[in-house]
Amino acid sequence: MGDYLRPARLDEALEALARPFTVLAGGTDFYPSRVGRAIDEDILDISNIGALRGISRSGAGWRLGATTTWSDLLAAELPPLFDGVKQAAREVGGRQIQNAGTLAGNLCNASPAADGVPPLLALDAEVELASRQGTRRLALSQFIQGNRRTERRPDELLVAIHVPEMRQEARSRFLKLGARRYLVISIVMAAATVEVVDGCVGTARIAVGACSTAARRLPLLEAALVGTPLDSGLTDRLDPAHLAPLAPIDDVRASADYRREAAFAVLRRLLAEVAA
Amino acid sequence: MKIGFSLNGSRVEWSGAPVTRLAAALRDGLGLTGTKVGCDAGDCGACTVRLDGRQVCSCLVPMGQMEGRAVETVEGLAGQDGTLAALQKSFLVHGAAQCGICTPGMLMAAHDLLVRTPSPDRAQVEDALGGVLCRCTGYAKIIDAVMAAAMPSAEIVARTGEAVGARLARLDGVRKITGADLFGADVVPADALWIRVVRSPHARARFTLGDLGPLRARLAAVLTAADIPFNGYGIYPDTKDQPVLADGLVRYKGEAVVALVGDRTTVLSIRDEEVPIAWVPEEPVVGIDAASADDAPLVQADKPRNLLLDGGVKRGDAGAAFTACAAVAEGTFETAFVEHAYIEPEAGWAQRVGDRIEIHATTQTPYMDRDEIASVMRLKPEAVRIVPTACGGGFGGKLDLSVQPLIAVAAWKLGRPVALVYTRPESMAASTKRHPARVTAKFGCDADGKLVACDVTATFDTGAYASWGPTVANRVPVHATGPYAVPNVRTWGEAFFTNAPPAGAFRGFGVPQAAIAHEAMMDELADKLGIDRLEFRHRNALRAGDTTATGQTLEHSAGLAQCLDALRPHWRKAQEEVAAFNARPGPKRRGIGVGCMWYGIGNTSMSNPSRMRVGLAVDGTLTLYNGALDIGQGSNTIMTQIAADALGLPVAQFTLVTGDTDLTLDAGKTSASRQTFVSGRAAEAAGRDLRQQILRLANAGDDARLSLAGSVLTVRDGAEVRTLDLAKVGPLFGEGTFDPPTTLLDADGQGIPYATYAFAAQMATVEVDIELGTVKVLRIVAAHDVGKAINPTLVEGQIEGGIAQGLGLALMEEYLPGRTENLHDYLIPTIGDVPEIECLLIEDREPLGPSGAKGVGEPGLVPTAPAILGAVHHATGVRAHRVPLLPHRLREALAKLEKGTSR
């Protein structure tokens, strides 16, 4: 049987990471990958570190603690900027999973279909990684490298997610496409955050998930939207070429061709909702 | 590590490894087995508990996080004095629990909602319960129960002689809603040894075992093929082709190779890589085409052409008749492997008692298990005792052996209790599936829309072993005409072995696959002639007096036309609503479809008797000895309702003894929708037999009324009142037997394959998103001729649950070996996917059945996929030739259609 550490302080946790541990918080990805076998690895349980949980204002933005659950996020009073990530929070598993699963866990697990990633990409989120050597911040888009691959070193913990404030009124939306209503792994999902300037798009950030090894921003589309009035014409800006960063695959849920086509349709609807 | 926390309001201490799952600690350490484990992966929600006032999956909570926290489980819902909570009462009255394995999770999720929202609407219920899967109920009655929980209605009590037809709460219901019912994994003794099965990672491979000595030194035993006295089992006497443990050759991925027996922690800690197996993988035979190719490698060496069997039905001259048809429709339809996905994985334990072996396991068929275990162990059947546990869903999948032979062999050898509980991936990899089918159908009719000819060939992938393949291949040719009168018929069924999981029994035995084909043909013919699709079916419906393709004249109880009559007003209304909706622009298109079916009750042209016994003991205990296993469908209640009225005493006075092969007679298997019709008729006869004995003793007439108080039985015959003191009379037993009258089918498939048939018609309204290819089923209306609804609530439960599975078959379920061996990659409908369902019960009495009843277990599922697919065609013009109609498949078909019309 392995060790099981459950420190109350972050520095204790970081000290422990001088040697390899499997990090455990909400358990919603940890246990499913260990069905029917004895668990004998060394475990660092970070759920008791109060400083890692909760949402607060920090400087020019918000700090989302690593072990903040999806339900915590839903219950938090946050500006419309967070509407999209809240919509995603409602689609993460069932209520049971939302009550236990953590934001950082979703990012560190780095599934190509992680529901939290596109909306956080669309929020231009950064992750804060801590180790005994200190902390560093990385853009989320840099942090997640691919399917189940992140930039987290074994001696680091993802301690928080930082979301910058927007200067202007912001709108954000999230859409998910799956083959059933609840408890479904996305075939395609998309998230948008748009800054509104005089009724037009000031800046736009759009991300699509489950269509590449990691969710991707769509810079060409974002650029194409700038300056467009937020009305029914917004969807006309969308062009298939904007989806170039996506590299969908065939799997049990859908074909690659379908994903490409569906991503386009989902994006159009997403823009329509943003404009509505 | 010692951990203290609050459990249902009481402080408890637990010690063990902190990484232990809360679900395991509750069940194993703290003895609260009300919390069920269906997947250990957060996919099914059966283990839902409340933790600090929020619902969570207890399989995902480490005990290391539990210090000082508060857990509520299903055992804490009722009051300390046993008073049921309002929510529990509501579940009971609405029939919201069927098998009961998801019920604790459903209750806890619902409780979590009701604490915050005492009078929720449907959407709130769906959101709150979306994380718990149910495979039995179709969720309808669960939603009703939660929405009515604030004011549950009173339980119905039937007066003496009025039990049949009453919506009685299921007799085992309280056990199911309190967490007290004991399933396969709930009854394992603490001192039992555990088995972990090492399974093949290859679909086809030869292998040799290395030196097992080192492993044997660490374990109680390591079983291989050499340890199995007779290493072959199978459903029919001539198909004992499946080894308990593979012997040098594996034929499907997931096949059992080696069984590790030892203490639980040790067997679970041994990785597959530590077991010395040298594999030589071979190219597997995948799919019907590969299996039936001229040069195909053989899956089983003694089965030439990989053919399991073939056969068909011939009547009139179909070939010639087509030439005279005014309209002909043709098509080929393919279906996938479908997984039963009962929420209870296979589980049980065994012990040697002297020269007998006792098996406590989840099953649908105790007597077949008994005889099969006797065969495997080379014992006499009397040396085997099967004690069925509660069965957490079966749907045909628990008709085959699973854990039984390994626990029996190990317990026999070691003289200690031995348990085996499948994990979810293991259950999915090892167990049988629905047969993938390719059905090629051609139907023709005259200018009036009367069917003239039918030619259907159904080819099945039966997987690596025969299992129930012969049953499927026999049943389908009989049913392939659909429930219609067709004078000229040629139907054919054939099944081929492949290197895939054995395809076995799954609710409908191939008929759901065939129904997709014949119903598509009905739609096409109706459209060709410009006849309404429902009216076309009505015109051709088999009616009493008609002769079927096997030459059987239906004397009674053929209520399809009545079912369609009942649907007609709903159909017309929906037609108008859909037309109005589609007049609006947008990517959503609606459509309606109708599906019909017939289903022969019981075995095909084979004896399948049931025997039942009712006993009245000297102390007045009235017992139904019931061998008809209740796997959630409600036979415990149905049998008692029937026996009670036949005897003339109230249901409430009955005690039940169920399934134990030492205590009950053989009532056959719970399959083929046969229990109400066959065992019900036997229960009726047993009740009548006991009544006759009592009337004789009291010298009373047939109309006498009985009442029982303690050991005193009072018989009122008109003005005369006689009492019998049972203590003096001695114990009384009534016995009843029924075997439905059938005949063998001749070379042309002519004969009487079934004594009676159920009929049904369902209509579906769907909304298709034509941009995304997604289908949302908005409503289903289901009209079923059940002969007589013994308990309408339970009948509706069967229909609603069947519909959910039919919806899954049509739209989302596809088992791919090695890729969908869990409940997040293999999708079954959630509470948000099953629409509102309206059941219309048609009672065209079957004189052979108890009070006129037939069966409804499988019929609920059969017409659903055809109705949905017909509705998709109505909405979009796409005829689905392959199911499941996943979004990408529908979108592909839509694109083809768009190209075709723009040209």
UniProtKB/TrEMBL annotation, chain A:
| Domain FAD-binding PCMH-type stretches | 1-168
Q: Extract the InterPro entries matched here.
A: CO_DH_flav_C, CO_DH_flav_C_dom_sf, Diverse_Substr_Oxidored, FAD-bd_PCMH, FAD-bd_PCMH-like_sf, FAD-bd_PCMH_sub1, FAD-bd_PCMH_sub2, Mopterin_DH_FAD-bd
* Segment forming the signal sequence: none
Q: Which UniProt keywords apply?
A: FAD, Flavoprotein, Oxidoreductase
Which superkingdom?
Bacteria
Which SUPFAM superfamilies did the record assign?
Answer: CO dehydrogenase flavoprotein C-terminal domain-like, FAD-binding/transporter-associated domain-like
Fetch the PANTHER family from UniProt: XANTHINE DEHYDROGENASE SUBUNIT C-RELATED
Which named protein is this?
CO or xanthine dehydrogenase, FAD-binding subunit
This protein's species is Enhydrobacter aerosaccus
Q: What is the lineage of its organism?
A: Bacteria, Pseudomonadati, Pseudomonadota, Alphaproteobacteria, Hyphomicrobiales
Automatic annotation (TrEMBL), chain B:
* Listed InterPro entries: 2Fe-2S-bd (IPR002888), 2Fe-2S-bd_dom_sf (IPR036884), 2Fe-2S_ferredoxin-like_sf (IPR036010), 2Fe-2S_ferredoxin-type (IPR001041), 2Fe2S_fd_BS (IPR006058), Ald_Oxase/Xan_DH_a/b (IPR000674), Ald_Oxase/Xan_DH_a/b_sf (IPR036856), Ald_Oxase/xanthine_DH-like (IPR016208)
Asked whether the keyword Ion transport is assigned, the reply is: no
Drop me one GO molecular function for this one: iron ion binding
Annotated SMART domains: Ald_Xan_dh_C
Per UniProt, residues of the 2Fe-2S ferredoxin-type domain are 1-77
Q: Which CDD domains match?
A: fer2
Does the record bear Magnesium in its keywords? no
Q: Which Pfam families match?
A: Fer2, Fer2_2, MoCoBD_1, MoCoBD_2
Keywords tagged on the record = Iron, Metal-binding, Oxidoreductase
Q: Which family is it part of?
A: Belongs to the xanthine dehydrogenase family.
Q: What is this protein called?
A: CO or xanthine dehydrogenase, Mo-binding subunit
